Amino acid sequence: MVISAMLVCACSQPKQVESDVGKPVRIILVGDSTMATRSGYGDALCQRFKPDVTCLNLAKGGRSSGSYRAEGSWEVVQKLIASNAQFSQTLVLIQFGHNDQPGKPGRSTDLATEFPVNMAGYVEELQAAGAHAVLLTPLTRRSFKGAQLQNDLRPWAEASIKVATSKHVTLIDLNAISYKAVQAMGEAEADTLAMAPPPAVLPVATTDLSKIEKAGAAKSAFDRTHLGGKGAAYFSSMVLKELLIVAPVLQSHVNAETR
C-alpha cells in the first residue's frame, strides 16, 4: 500500500528548475503535536538538513485539520508562501488526524464530510501558490493490546491517501510505516520513545491518554502518543528516508551525519 500510494503521486514529485539553481529550498511543517516542537519529530527532521534549507516547524499541539485553519495558523503559512521567488521550491508537509477523531470538542471533524475536504483545501491552496504539498498520514500511536499494536488512526490515513490520489500530490503513508516498525519493536521498546519513562505502576486509565489529549502543547509526561528525544530522532529518520524517495531533489541538502 505504501509503495502504490507513492507511485500514484509520482507525477507531482518536486523537480529542480534550472533557473532556480543556487536558490535555497524551503520546507514548512504543518500538523499536530506528533510533529510539533518538544512533543513531535518536526524539529529533529529540520535538523537533518543543511543550512541551505529553510525548514520551519509550524506544527502545533492539539490541532486538527479544521482547528489549524480556524485559529489562523494556516493564514501564517499562506503569507509565507505568497512569494516563493527567493526559493528554488517550497515543500509543505501536512499531517493531521489525531485531533480530528471524535471526542475532542472544538477540534473533531467528520471523517466523511469534513476531514477530506479540509485536507483537499490545503492542497489546492498550495498548488495555486506554486508550492509542493506532501501529505503524511498520521503517525501511529504506541498503544498495545497484549502483543498487538492498535491502530485507530487508519481510517484517517486512508482518507488522506484518497485525497493525495485525487489531487495527484505526493504522499507518505507514515501511519503504515510507523505502525509496522512499532509493532515489530514491541511495547517495552516503544515506551522508550515517549516524552518520559512510564510510571512503575501504570493505571488502566493511561491506556486512553492518547484519546484525551488537550489542545495545546503536550506536557512532559508519559503517554503513548507524544515523543521524547529518542522518539523524535527515530521517527524523523523514518520521515526523512521516505521524503528523499518522493522528493529526491533533497538528497544533496541532507547532513550526511544525520541520515
Automatic annotation (TrEMBL):
SUPFAM superfamilies: SGNH hydrolase (SSF52266)
UniProt cross-references to InterPro entries, sorted A to Z: RhgT-like (IPR037459), SGNH_hydro (IPR013830), SGNH_hydro_sf (IPR036514)
CDD domains found in the cross-reference section: Rhamnogalacturan_acetylesterase_like
Domain named SGNH hydrolase-type esterase: residues: 30-190
Keywords from the UniProt entry: Hydrolase
Similarity comment: Belongs to the 'GDSL' lipolytic enzyme family.
Name the UniProt record assigns to this protein: Rhamnogalacturonan acetylesterase
